[in-house]
Amino acid sequence: MKTLNDFNFKxxxxxxxxxxxxxxxxxxxxxxATRIQAAKPTIIKILEDxxxxxxxxxxxxxxxxxxxxxxxxxxxxxxxxxxxxxxFVDDSIGEKVEEAVANLEDGEILLLxxxxxxxxxxxxxxxxxxxxxxxxxxxxxxxxxxxxxxxASTTIIAQFFEDNKCFGSLLAREIESIDKVLNNSEKxxxxxxxxxxxxSKITVIENILDKVDHLIIGGGMTFTFVKAQGGSVGDSxxxxxxxxxxxxxxxxxxxxxxxVHIPVDVIAADDFSNTANTQVLDVTQxxxxxxxxxxxxxxxxxxxxVVNKSKTILWNGPLGVFEMxxxxxxxxxxxxxxxxxxxxxxFSLVGGGDSVAAVKQFGFADKVSYVSTGGGAMLEMLEGxxxxxxxxxxx
Length: 395
Ligand SMILES: Nc1ncnc2c1ncn2[C@@H]1O[C@H](COP(=O)(O)OP(=O)(O)OP(=O)(O)O)[C@@H](O)[C@H]1O
Ligand SMILES: O=C(O)[C@H](O)COP(=O)(O)O
Fold this sequence. Notes:
Oligomer: single chain
CATH superfamily of the largest domain: Phosphoglycerate kinase, N-terminal domain
Number of strands: 17
Pfam family, one: PGK
Strand content: 15-25%
EC number: 2.7.2.3
Bound molecules: adenosine-5'-triphosphate, 3-phosphoglyceric acid
Number of helices: 14
Distance between the termini: 10 Å
CATH architecture of the largest domain: 3-Layer(aba) Sandwich
Helix content: 25-40%
Strand order of the largest sheet: 3-4-2-1-5-6
CATH class of the largest domain: Alpha Beta
Binding site for substrate: 19-21, 35, 58-61, 116, 149
Radius of gyration: 23 Å
Largest sheet: 6 strands, parallel
Number of domains: 2
Enzyme class: transferase
CATH topology of the largest domain: Rossmann fold
GO molecular function: ADP binding; ATP binding; phosphoglycerate kinase activity
C-alpha cells in the first residue's frame, strides 16, 4: 500500500482528490468543516516537502453547472483551516486551469471548480480523467468519503499514473481503522447497529456476524426483530417483509456464537413528535396508537454492560430518533458508555451519516477513538465490498 511517505514532493505538483463535499447553510457558509480538517495532514506534508497541491473535489449533486454548488464558497474556509493562501480557478479542466497549474509555485495550493459540473466525472469518462491527470506529477487519493464511487477523479484517473500514485493520510487512516475493527480486533468485539431500517443494513449485519462476539441492534430496526419473534410493536416502524430475514439473522448469529442484544424496553410515544405523550413500555407489548422511538432504561443498562466489557466497538446508526430531544437519551447514553469503555482502553470507531452527526451534536467526537469521514463508503466497507477508489491505487 503506497502512502505519502513513499514520496518526496519537493518541486512536485500533487493532484489530490479530496472529499470537500461539506454542508453549507443558506448563506453558503460551511457548517461542518470536518472533512476539510481531515485533509489537512496530507496537504501539509506535501507543502512541507517543498511541493504544491492541486485540490479537486465534488460538492453535492449538481445538475450541470449550478452556481450554488461552486467550490468558490469554501475557499475561505480551506484557507483558514490549512493556514495557507488558496488560489481558486473556476473550471476543472481546460486552458485556464492548465495555466493556473503552470503558474503554481512550490508551497502553493490551487483548488479546482466542482468536478461534477462535468457529467464526465460521474460517468467515469476516460478522456476527462486523462485531462485531470495532466494537472499533476503525482496522484494522491485522500477522498475516503467518495472512494465507493468509480468516478473519473476517484478511480479512472489512477491508470494514468503508473507508480506515481498513493493514498493520502486520511484515506490510509480510514482503511486502517476499519481493518482494526473487522480483521485485527482485540476481543470481545461489539458492533452496534441502529438507524431506521433493516433493509439498508442487511448486508452489513450479514458480513459483520463473522467478525463480532456481540451485536446490539437498536433504533427503528428493533421492531422488525421483535415482531418477527411474536411481539406486539404497535405503530412502531416495522418492515413486515423483512421479518423472515430477521429470524434468519438471529439463527445465523446463534450458529456463529454471536450474542445479539435487542432493546427489552422502549420510550413509546403516541405521536411522531417531540411533544408527544410518552411512556416506558416492554418492547414486546406496545399497543396500537403507540410507537417506540428510543431505547428504554433497562435496555440502556444492558447495553452499558456489553459496551464496557468490549475491547473493540463499532457504532453505526443512532439508537432512537435523536433529532428530537425527547428521544435522544438512548443515543446520548450509548455515547457515554462508549466514551467510558474507550477511556478503559477499547478501540471505538463511529461511522455512517447519522451516527456521526449524533456524536458531533452530543460532544462525543473527541471521545471515541476514530470518527469516519465516510457515510456510504464506510457502509460499503462494512459490507465487505472492495471500494473502486482504493483498488485503483493498489493496481
Ligand atoms: N425507533 C425509531 N423509529 C423511527 N426512526 C428511527 C428510530 N430510531 C432511529 N430512527 C431514525 O433513523 C435515522 C438514521 O438511520 P440511518 O440508517 O440513516 O442511520 P446511519 O446508519 O447513522 O446513517 P447512514 O445510513 O447515512 O450511514 C435517524 O434519522 C433516526 O431518527
Ligand atoms: O458525502 C458523501 O457520502 C460523499 O461525498 C459521496 O457523495 P455522493 O453520495 O453524492 O456520491
